[in-house]
Amino acid sequence: MKTDKKLQLGYQDLKLISTNEPPPFLTYNAGGSSPQLIVCDHAANLVPKKLEKLGLTDEELSQHIGWDPGALDIAKLLANALDAPLIYSCYSRLVCDLNRYQFDQNSMPESSDGIMVPGNRNLSAMARYRRFEELFRPYHDAIAAKLDAFEATKVTPSLLSIHTCTDKMNGKFRPWPVSLSYAQDTRISKRLIEHLRRRKICKIGDNEPYSLDVGIDFTVCEHAMRRGLAYMQVEFRQDLVVTKAGAKHWVNNFLPSLQYALTEPGLSEPKYFEYMDFVT
Q: Which residues lie closer than 8 Å to 209 by C-beta, 6 or more apart?
């Protein structure tokens, strides 16, 4: 059956991401041999051209509201060091936050840290759905497929989610160069925190400034907790890792303790916990 070329063109006009723009996500070191998957939800601050930068300036998009500066550099360095595959986003968290549920208004916020986002005001249900289908779903489908591939080979992987956070929020300085977020499953976090503190690398944020918010944070909850996989969500402070040299320095500091934590024997089997607030 022939397809009407006008209909094809019309469908392309409806698509948010044009054919000459980056895909919603990319994979790095896809053939990595270690039983870990690294993900980076907020790796980029790009906005599809059709959305006209959401009405923001380049300076505003370069701030932490638009992405996690330094996170992708860190994620790639860890992927190389561990020989682990990495899946990362290609568009700004303001277009669609890949670590928030579809029903969460903060997945496409009208304002962030006091900055209005004109392109997110009064979004229709169809506009939200289009962003979800073109950005959110492909990224998370790729993560799920990679975890399925591990399990098909009888390997139980761990999930490492890499973020960075601003050094100040609401006028308060954050003294933790490295912060770890987790819930009941402490298989990685306990050993990692103990080893980092024993080495006296820096002040460690133990669920500070963020804990893992079950039912709010999407990636770890839906991909690791649902499967009973060990996980760790890491926040590096942005002012320390915004340059490639800074990212490399802090990865070198962090890596020995991470490698130690990943030798925990219990990581090789799924372990399930009851999360009272888990979205069903």
A: 165, 169, 174, 176, 179, 235
Residue 2 counted as domain residue: no
Q: Is residue 186 part of a domain?
A: yes
Q: Which of 209, 220, 109, 106 is nearest to 164 (CA)?
A: 209
Q: Is residue 278 included in any domain, yes or no?
A: no
CATH number of the CATH domain containing 184: 3.40.630.40
**Residue bearing tokens 């270690």:** 34
Domain count, the chain: 1
pLDDT at 236 over 80: yes
Preceding omega of 24 cis (within 30 degrees of 0): no
Range of the domain at 199: 19-267
In whole angstroms, give the CA distance from residue 23 to residue 151: 26
Tell me the Ramachandran region of residue 14: left when phi exceeds 0, alpha when psi lies from -120 to 50, beta otherwise: alpha
CA 137/CA 121 separation, integer angstroms: 22
The more confident residue out of 4 and 200 is 200
The beta strands (E) that lie in the chain are given as: 25-28, 36-40, 86-89, 111-112, 115-116, 158-165, 168-169, 172-173, 178-181, 204-206, 231-237
Q: If pLDDT is split at 50, 70 and 90, which confidence band does 13 have?
A: low
**Phi-psi region at 62: left, alpha or beta (left = phi > 0; alpha = psi -120 to 50):** alpha
The answer as to whether 39 is a domain residue is yes
